[in-house]
């Protein structure tokens, strides 16, 4: 407010037009900034809201509706109540798919974050040439379609692929024969798919952590080293507390990727051998389009959505803290 406006306010008691209060019904007084009404902002975001509602909220609502019916997708539907949700947790195959999901969360989320932390902790103490190239190579799997990733890793895990070839050389050198049909083995198929997820997600976690490390004041590292802190103590005292927000983002994104993982499973193993690599996202497709259990498929999808919200909320509470 200018000095002239202040003098006018003192003499007349009237506020300048730019910050003049509006008296509404009921005696309330509400100040309004000059220019357009705030309600006009809804018009700007209305097209995005319409698209969001048409392609996300409406299908989600219909999915919730179908989950309470038994329907094959063609004939008439019959009311099922909560039986589809009950089947989701009582059917051994479906219950096993959620168990496989927990295993994939370890490979898709926890392992990539741990490996990225090790890389970032090492690089925060020394300067490495070609950092841009190194970062690009690690992030490259993120921009490759998962279908292409699945086809490539099918060849890597094949009988005459690189993995078995290297293991054959080790066997010729006197070590035990560790060669397997990795994607066709009941024991190793799920970990083999999980390692592909680890390879894909390391780059995302690494880029996020490297961006976070750059905003940590260098004085903290210098003070820790002056106090005699080694690499491990420096990591837990400086690096890890400074990367809490980046860790929350990385865990959220990678966990989301593991929960909605379908294309890699579909292309690499098709859920096999047997039920060894079936996950809830694959079961949504399988039950809806292969066995004609649309209601059950919708119930699995809604359960996945609730699980995703719960996991992301828990990550935010545990990593960022309650007070932030």
TrEMBL record:
One of its GO terms (biological process) is transmembrane transport. GO terms for cellular component: plasma membrane. Keywords: Cell membrane, Membrane, Transmembrane, Transmembrane helix, Transport. Pfam families: BPD_transp_1 (PF00528). It is found in: Cell membrane. Residues 1-34 are annotated as: Disordered. Residues 98-315 form the ABC transmembrane type-1 domain. The chain crosses the membrane at residues 40-61, 98-121, 133-156, 188-211, 294-315. Gene3D superfamilies: MetI-like (1.10.3720.10). Its main location: membrane. It is a multi-pass membrane protein. InterPro entries: MetI-like (IPR000515), MetI-like_sf (IPR035906), UgpAE/MalFG_permease (IPR050809). It comes from the Bacteria. Belongs to the binding-protein-dependent transport system permease family. This is Sugar ABC transporter permease. It comes from Actinomadura harenae. The lineage of its organism: Bacteria, Bacillati, Actinomycetota, Actinomycetes, Streptosporangiales.
């Amino acid at each position: 407010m200018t000095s002239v406006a202040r003098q006018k306010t003192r003499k007349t008691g009237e506020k300048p037009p730019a910050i003049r209060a509006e008296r509404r019904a009921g005696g309330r007084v509400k100040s309004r900034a000059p220019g357009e009404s705030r309600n006009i902002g809804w018009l700007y975001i209305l097209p995005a809201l319409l698209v969001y509602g048409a392609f996300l909220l409406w299908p989600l609502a219909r999915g919730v509706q179908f989950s309470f019916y038994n329907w094959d997708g063609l004939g008439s539907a019959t009311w099922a109540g909560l039986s589809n949700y009950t089947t989701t947790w009582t059917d051994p195959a479906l219950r096993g798919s959620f168990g496989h999901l927990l295993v994939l969360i370890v490979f898709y989320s926890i392992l990539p974050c741990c490996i990225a932390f090790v890389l970032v902790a090492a690089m925060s103490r020394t300067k490495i040439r070609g950092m841009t190239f190194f970062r690009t190579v690690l992030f490259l799997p993120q921009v490759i379609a998962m279908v292409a990733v699945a086809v490539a890793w099918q060849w890597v895990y094949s009988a005459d692929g690189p993995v078995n070839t290297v293991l054959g050389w080790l066997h010729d050198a006197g070590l035990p024969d560790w060669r397997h049909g990795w994607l066709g083995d009941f024991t190793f198929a799920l970990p083999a798919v999980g390692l592909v997820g680890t390879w894909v997600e390391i780059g995302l976690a690494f880029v996020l952590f490297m961006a976070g490390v750059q905003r940590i004041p260098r004085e903290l590292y210098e003070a820790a080293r002056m106090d005699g802190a080694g690499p491990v103590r420096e990591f837990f005292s400086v690096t890890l507390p400074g990367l809490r927000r980046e860790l929350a983002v990385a865990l959220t994104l990678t966990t989301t990727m593991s929960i909605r993982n379908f294309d890699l499973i579909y292309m690499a193993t098709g859920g096999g051998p047997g039920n060894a690599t079936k996950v809830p996202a694959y079961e949504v497709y399988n039950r809806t389009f292969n066995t004609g259990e649309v209601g059950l498929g919708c119930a699995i999808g809604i359960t996945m959505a609730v699980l995703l919200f719960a996991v992301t909320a828990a990550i935010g509470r545990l990593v960022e803290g309650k007070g932030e």
